[in-house]
Design goal:
alpha+beta; 30% strand; disordered N terminus
């Protein structure tokens, strides 16, 4: 528990939800799941309010020391829950322009369900809405709580190398948030500094959903 609390405080590095208030907006329709806390409905990219799910490339550790693909598990769990028509309501946008929203399917809050499954944490930096669900998952040792916990924010801040197929570089410069895929002219010269909010992506869809655009160097 002490390790979790320490990492949660330290994990603000790389956080991506810096809200900007706006009129309430409702979005409804079939959802495409990018990862555990990001959906796309139509042309709207949605960042689920109040939760932070493990990144797609993130692994977690069980109590017996074995690792498991918790990021992939969170993504698949959200895909299973977000089938069909999903309804979302948001009142803020993050610094990447994504609508920060509460999304539900058949009156079930998708973010709350993922936290209760132990596949996301309550994102205390921005909300206290899901602390109860997190405590329930922690007590039951579900999901990421089955072993030592590394918060997604801490993982983002310390994952300085690409993992597996996640080799797309999300760079931040005076030109904005640009991603570079292997084969682009500037790929080799582009360095990633997680402390600045730069990050690795597994797919171009994931990079675009996070607010990055392709560098024009193909």
């Amino acid at each position: 528990m002490f390790r979790f609390c320490t990492l949660l405080v330290c994990g603000v590095l790389g956080a991506s939800v810096v809200p900007t208030a706006l009129m309430a907006k409702e979005v409804r329709g079939p959802a495409r799941v990018v990862d555990g806390d990001t959906l796309v409905i139509g042309d709207e990219i949605l960042r689920l309010h109040g939760i932070d799910a493990p990144e797609r490339a993130q692994d977690c550790t069980r109590s017996d020391g074995r690792t498991w693909a918790c990021g992939a598990a969170a993504t698949e769990a959200m895909k299973a829950r977000a089938t069909g028509v999903v309804s979302c309501r948001g009142t803020t946008r993050d610094r990447y322009g994504r609508l920060v929203a509460v999304c539900s399917k058949n009156d079930v809050d998708l973010g709350a369900a993922l936290v209760e499954d132990g596949l996301a944490i309550a994102y205390r930096q921005y909300s206290t809405d899901y602390i109860g669900q997190e405590k329930a998952a922690m007590i039951a040792k579900r999901g990421i709580w089955s072993g030592p916990v590394e918060t997604p924010a801490h993982w983002r801040a310390h994952s300085n190398d690409p993992t597996g197929d996640c080799a797309i570089k999300g760079n931040i410069s005076s030109n904005g948030h640009l991603y570079h895929v292997p084969g682009m002219r500037s790929y080799a010269a582009t360095k990633i500094d997680e402390a600045k909010g730069e990050r690795w992506f597994c797919t171009e869809d994931e990079a675009r959903a996070a607010g990055w655009t392709a560098a024009d160097t193909r």
